[in-house]
Amino acid sequence: MRLIPWILLACSFPALAQAADQRVKAVLHANQAAVGSMPEAGAAVYRYGYSGDGLTGESTKTVDLGTGAYVERLDTGFLHTAEGFDTRTPWTRDISGANTPEQGGDPARVAVSAAYRNANLWWRQDLAGARIEYVGRDTLAGAVRMHDQVAFATGIYTPDIEGIPVDGMVGFELFRRLIVRIDYGRRILTFTLPGHASFRNAGVAVPFVFYTHLPFVRGRIDEMPATFDVDTGSRSELDVTSPAVARYRLRDRYPRGARAVTGWGVGGPSESYVVRLRSVTLGTVTVSAPVADLSGAARGSFSDPNFDGNIGSGFLKRFVVTFDYGHQVMYLRRIEPAPPDVGDFDRSGLWINATKGGYSVTYVAAHSPAAQAGLHTGDVIVELDGRPARAEDLSDARELLRARPAGTHVPMLVKGKTGSRRLVLTLRDQI
Question: How confident is the model at residue 156 (pLDDT cuts 50, 70, 90)?
Fold first, then answer.
């Protein structure tokens, strides 16, 4: 693996330490300006409506502005709890009404910190004897550390979709700062600082511009000119937008397709008409017989007339892909031999997600091998090809149903509404 040069800020350097001190002062000044003047003695009472865990009520926080001591109470009609700090000992009151001093672990440290902030002691010139350090806000991706990175929290993934827990997603903010190489064959990501990367064996250069933060590449669908977004977060090979499908009459050109669920996201299943095109070209790089999802969307990104298709990881995994966002160039170097499931489309007619005890059958295409084998939506596959169906193997299970040759018999143990049954699914090309 390439050694990645990267930089960390260390406050042992006088200039960096001074900059960190100035950052602390700026943050505290902004905090005081936002809050306004507060008395140095007396009490403050904060009341909030509470709704959670099936309960509703009121949460009340009372603070001694001189010392920061506090009491927080939660009242939900029949359930009452509290916690607090008297400047000496933190305590809790449970639902039985019993008060317990919390002197083990870190409650004392947490309470002292809360009291300090409650009394706004950090506004004082001497910081009330405390030392405040700016340690930054870091986002880690492997060996790469980004400071003060803006992020947001949202339910992008659930474990049932991918079979594994996913804590976050990195994208444009990381790619724009570094040279990023994705080796799909070896499953290795390489991050390199600009100026340290070598492109000698990177492959064919494909220039791009940006459209909504994604690389926007010119190319062709078959012999027809087309423009594409490059989206490493998509599992598909190519999603053709509905305006391009209509303009090039792709449903008429490719009548032997299959309707199938081709993805699953926050909003649920994504269904498309899937065909095998003659070719797709990015820049000067041509791929023969790729799988394409022909969108019929009337709204959303795939109804946008400003681009013709979205290139995903299913297409890119034929290559070692290098992104140089600074110079707006993508490099493509073919992997030889190609990964085993490149260019394959599902041969089962199923969409499966992970669930407790196996794989949940969430979609069965009409007249598909899965339908002919007797699988139904709502079934749970307990064993697949003689092995227990485990959530962490979900990606491998999908690959098996996609990459095994047509005619392969896949035994299953399935649990349904009427009990468990064994069946055999015979894979068949659908496009």
Answer: low
**What are the C-alpha distances in Å from 217 to residues 34, 176, 212, 393?**
45, 17, 13, 34
The amino acid that residue 341 corresponds to is D
Residues contacting residue 159 through CB under 8 Å, at least 6 positions apart? 165, 166, 354, 391
User: Which residues are within 8 A (CB) of 325 and not within 5 positions of it... i.e. 6 or more apart?
Assistant: 175, 176, 215
Tokens of 46: 């904060």
Instruction: Specify whether the CB–CB gap between 427 and 408 falls below 8 A.
Output: yes
- The second-level CATH assignment, the architecture, of 172-334 is Beta Barrel (2.40)
pLDDT at 40 over 90: no
Question: Is there a contact between 188 and 180 (Cβ–Cβ < 8 Å)?
Answer: no
One-letter amino acid of 19:
A
Does the pLDDT at position 398 exceed 50?
yes
**So where are the chain's domains?**
43-119, 172-334, 350-426
Which token pair is 121? 């002691």
Rounded Cα gap, residues 281 and 262, in angstroms: 22
CA distance 217 to 329: 10
What distance in Å separates the CA atoms of residue 390 and residue 397, rounded to the nearest whole number? 9
Cβ–Cβ < 8 Å for 403, 341: yes
Is the pLDDT at 337 greater than 70, yes or no?
A: yes
Nearest to 309 by CA among 430, 431, 215: 215
DSSP-derived secondary structure for 45-88? EEEEEEEETTEEEEEEEEEETTT--EEEEEE-SS-EEEEEE-SS
Are 78 and 64 in contact, with CB atoms under 8 Å apart?
A: no
- Answer left, alpha or beta for residue 63, where phi above 0 means left and psi between -120 and 50 means alpha: beta
Q: H/E element holding 394? A: helix 394-403
Percent pLDDT > 90 in the chain is 60
Q: Among 2.30.42.10, 3.50.50.60, 3.40.1170.60, 2.40.240.50, name the CATH number for the domain at 350-426.
A: 2.30.42.10
Q: What's the full length of the chain, in residues?
A: 431
Task: Tell me whether domains 172-334 and 350-426 share a fold.
Answer: no
